[in-house]
């Protein structure tokens, strides 16, 4: 997340948004959820990642560069539609961690806003595919750090209580890789804003496997970290 420019092709997603930006159909429609997942080539999901559970994480971010614009046809190839949208709107290639073919892919983000910024959380569902493999059967450590770079950047874009895409840039990421990730794993990434100073947004992040517990009964952590985003001038009132 190093580009500080703002693209007009993005969607600003408010904390009160309750419908899909593309379809205007409530996202809790089971049929729509299934159609979307199939069209976007999601893997099978574990029970902890069901729609009802994910909705508890917050409002879904709908970003046009990841979803192919406002008028996509779920019956047509979504990857082609996304590519066409990105090229038409000035993008040069695929998103590193949000494209359908990404080796490690964030399937979706959900945000739980705090109007004051501090306390806002951004939770993501992450698929580590076989194309991220390094050691036999395990994913490259860089796949975890790439996810941290992305989520730290995007929570910075959400610091005002509204998502303003590309409204800042990541300047620092600190990562501690604690446990390797097996190929084809589905994990949860959770980031929280814990401090803001003028245009600086400080956050902490965890990469979690909700299906496994340690001796203390807590979910296993694959990695932890923290980071700093600088938002553009004028994004935060008075700064």
UniProtKB/TrEMBL annotation:
Any one GO CC term of the record: mitochondrial inner membrane
Topology term for the membrane: Peripheral membrane protein
Keywords, in A-Z order: Apoptosis, Cell membrane, Cell projection, Cytoplasm, Fatty acid metabolism, Hydrolase, Lipid metabolism, Membrane, Mitochondrion, Mitochondrion inner membrane, Transit peptide
Keyword field contains Lyase: no
Pfam families: 4HBT (PF03061)
PANTHER family to which the protein is assigned, alphabetical: ACYL-COENZYME A THIOESTERASE THEM4
Similarity comment: family membership: Belongs to the THEM4/THEM5 thioesterase family.
Name assigned to this protein: Acyl-coenzyme A thioesterase THEM4
Species this chain originates from: Chaetoceros tenuissimus
């Amino acid at each position: 997340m190093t580009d500080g420019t703002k693209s007009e092709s993005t969607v600003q997603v408010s904390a009160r948004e309750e419908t899909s930006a593309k379809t205007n159909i409530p996202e809790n429609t089971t049929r729509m959820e299934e159609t979307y997942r199939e069209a976007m080539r999601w893997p099978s999901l574990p029970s902890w990642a069901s729609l009802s559970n994910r909705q508890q994480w917050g409002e879904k971010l709908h970003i046009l560069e990841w979803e192919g614009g406002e008028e996509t046809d779920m019956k047509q190839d979504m990857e082609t539609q996304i590519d066409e949208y990105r090229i038409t709107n000035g993008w040069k290639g695929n998103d590193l961690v949000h494209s359908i073919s990404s080796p490690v892919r964030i399937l979706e983000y959900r945000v739980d806003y705090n109007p004051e910024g501090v306390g806002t959380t951004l939770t993501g569902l992450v698929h580590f595919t076989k194309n991220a493999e390094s050691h036999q059967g395990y994913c490259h450590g860089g796949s975890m750090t790439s996810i941290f770079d992305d989520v730290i950047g995007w929570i910075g874009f959400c610091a005002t209580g509204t998502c303003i895409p590309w409204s800042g840039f990541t300047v620092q990421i600190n990562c501690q890789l604690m446990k390797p990730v097996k190929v084809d794993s589905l994990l949860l990434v959770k980031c929280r804003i814990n401090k803001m100073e003028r245009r600086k947004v400080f956050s902490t992040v965890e990469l979690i496997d909700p299906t496994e517990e340690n001796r203390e009964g807590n979910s296993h952590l694959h990695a932890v970290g923290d980071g700093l985003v600088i938002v553009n001038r004028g994004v935060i009132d008075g700064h």
